Amino acid sequence: MAAQFRMKRDYYAGALMMLIGLGAAAEGGTYHIGTLVRMGPGFFPVALGVILVCLGIIIAGTAFASREGGDERFLPAHPQWFGWLCLIGGPILFIILGVYAGMIPAIFACVFVCALGDKTATLKGTLIMSAGVTVFGVILFSYLLGVPLPLLRGITS
Amino acid sequence: MIETALQDLWFGFGVALEPHNLMYCFLGVLVGNLVGVLPGMGPVATISILLPLTFGMKPVAAILMLAGVYYGAQYGGAICSILLNLPTHPPHAVTCLDGFPLTKQGKGGTALGITVIASFMGASFGITEMIFLAPFLVKVALQFGPAEVCSLMLVGLLAGSTLARGSPLKGIAMTVLGLLIGIVGTDIETGTTRFTFGILELDDGVEIVTLALGLFGIAEFMNSMNQTAAVDTKYSKVGFRDMFPSRADLKRAFFPMVRGTLLGSMCALIPGTGPTIASFVSYATEKKISRTPERFGHGAIEGVACPEASTHSSVQGDFIPTMSLGIPGDVTMALLLGALIIQGIVPGPQLISEHPDIFWGLIASFWIGNILLVILNVPMIGLWVKLLSIPYRYLYPSAMFFICIGVYAANNDMFQVGETVAIGIFGYVLLRLDFHPAPILLGFVLGPRFEENFRRAMLISRGDLKVFIERPISAAFLTLCVLLIAGQIYVWLRRPKSVAGAGEIEAKLPASPYTELSG
Fold first, then answer.
1. Which domain holds residue A34?
2. Is the dihedral of CA B289, B295, B296, B300 positive or negative?
3. Which residue of B401, B403, B462, B465 is the best one to mutate when testing the A interface, meaning the one whose CB has the most A CBs within 10 A?
């Protein structure tokens, strides 16, 4: 242990697996476990959880054992916070507008917001594309496939 | 035996040529070819997006279309690799090595022509292999009890997670995670709800659509957001006339094609080794046995013909374990099985006898689809090349909309759209930690059946775990599992030396901004 302790991405990876495994085993333990002959619903979750904890330990362990310096950073070199926000915001707007306003605003907002995340996007191009996708989407999903989501709530429903 | 196979095949052509089915087959290969060409969209994401649309269709049409997307994308992916040096589809990554130099020399058209011939040859052999091998496998598999099925699934799961790219350890961890996600919902035997945390919407479990679109849609887009370089199309002017290879090129490419085809079909039989590994292995082999290995990497036509033939024969061969045993070899196959399960069809050895229209119709449609693809690719090559320049900024927002409405339409449930977003964010975290999410889907699809068979086997043997070693077939499968793990440990221990061969090829590959891995 002459070398200084350095953070590696695989430690996070191992820890995440351990955490999920522990959670699964703990939650599975509250169900009826049963015996090997008559397994209860808790048997499999607990078994898998324990396996996952072991795997997590091995993942972190092999990273610790290997001398190669792994990548330390969790985030990529150029984090795209705005892009990610747009990408996640699109579907969330789709949910909200789909429930309260109808299909047309939901599609338009979803495509528009998602497209804004790209650095090269222009307002005009994005607007035209969103409108195009909306028209296409309404024709395909509302008229051809009959998805039961009203086009505009309060007007057509 | 040959006679019955031909009779069944004739019946299959009857099914596949019904106008309704033919239309969906055409639609499938067309969409497949399209996404294969478009940089930034892969077959896995596309099949996931199309999955909810198939719910209202007949099972035969649904499976023909989804399968068409898969092998159609292989044709398109080659165009992208050869003309743009962009390995957006992993099986075609090695094709870049010699395909792009050929393009720079102005022989891109010849390379594409050879690719089409090699693809068709590989695919035809893969299909023939399936016709004769699948019924034989089924005969064996019908004798299996729950213990054998369990061990077989274990082989499938282990092979699928360790032989794919990336760290095998992490692959196994992802498989276990997939098995855990498969547990969510109501337990079939006792009716207990598991891992639902009081959320009523989770009682029916996690839908395969939300899982696949979260992992291969949203997570993937988060990863490639603003990371894609502008596509350079300066070399990619190819017309119909350039496609015909000269006699000398054909002669040079013929035997590599044959070798590639055979290698690919062999890789298809080993569970977990999909087209990606097949193409790497065949390129390396071809380079090794070539009398002029120094030409490779500078535009050797053999370096295009061999991996392409092996990719296609392995793609078709992939369907063998999936359709005859119900054990998917990779993510795409897991998705197709998921589509069958949604249609109420139980995958497994009884599939061929219970649904001959699906099995033989699918095989016949492979041939029809491949012929359609040749027709689509040769005269219309100019159109596909134009598509290469569609920018990513138009692509992903449209795909996001398809994801949202597709998930909603599957069950008319907005909750699942939210679920997809959550899975997507989680999937991105996994990607950042160097986990490949593909095995999750494998575990997810096989999980419920694995648990059911394991419970049944234990019930029959009265809780005696020895049953897995005492029954010879099961013992053989378990030995295979042990060998797989031992092999991985061996490779890991002497890593610095053994990877050199594969690493050499991999190091030369152009970096790809996309991480979707299908094999």
1. 9-65
2. negative
3. B401
Domain annotation covers residue A1: no
A-B CB pairs within 8 A amount to 176
pTM of the model: 0.83
Per-residue pLDDT of chain B (519 residues), as tens digits, is 677 878 888 888 988 898 999 999 999 999 888 888 877 677 888 888 888 888 888 889 999 999 999 888 888 888 888 887 777 677 788 888 888 888 888 888 888 888 888 888 998 998 888 888 888 888 888 888 888 888 888 888 888 777 666 788 888 999 999 999 988 888 877 878 888 887 878 888 888 889 989 988 888 888 887 776 666 666 666 666 777 777 888 888 888 888 889 888 888 777 667 787 888 888 888 888 888 878 887 878 888 889 889 988 888 888 888 888 888 877 888 899 888 888 888 888 888 888 888 889 998 999 899 889 888 888 888 788 777 777 777 888 888 888 898 888 888 888 989 999 999 999 999 988 888 888 898 889 888 888 888 888 888 888 788 888 888 888 988 998 888 888 888 877 776 544 444 555 555 555 544 444 333
Separation in Å, CA of B503 to nearest CA in chain A: 17
State ipTM: 0.89
CB contact under 8 A, A148 and B177: no
**Do A86 and A127 belong together in one domain?**
yes
Closest-CA distance, B429 to chain A, in angstroms, reads 9
Residue A71 lies in a domain: no
Whether A97 and A60 share a structural domain: no
Q: Count structural domains, chain A.
A: 2
Per-residue burial over B344-358, b if 16 or more Cβ lie within 10 Å, else e, is ebebbbebbeebebb
Q: How many CA atoms lie less than 13 Å away from A32 in the CB half-sphere?
A: 12
Query: A37 in a domain, yes or no?
Result: yes
Single out the residue in A65, A96, A111 at which a domain terminates: A65
Residue B388 phi/psi, 5° resolution? -60, -25
Number of neighbours of residue B7 by Cβ within 10 angstroms: 11
Give the three-class secondary structure for B237: coil
Distance in angstroms (rounded) separating the CA atoms of residues B373 and B462: 54
CB contact under 8 A, A147 and B226: no
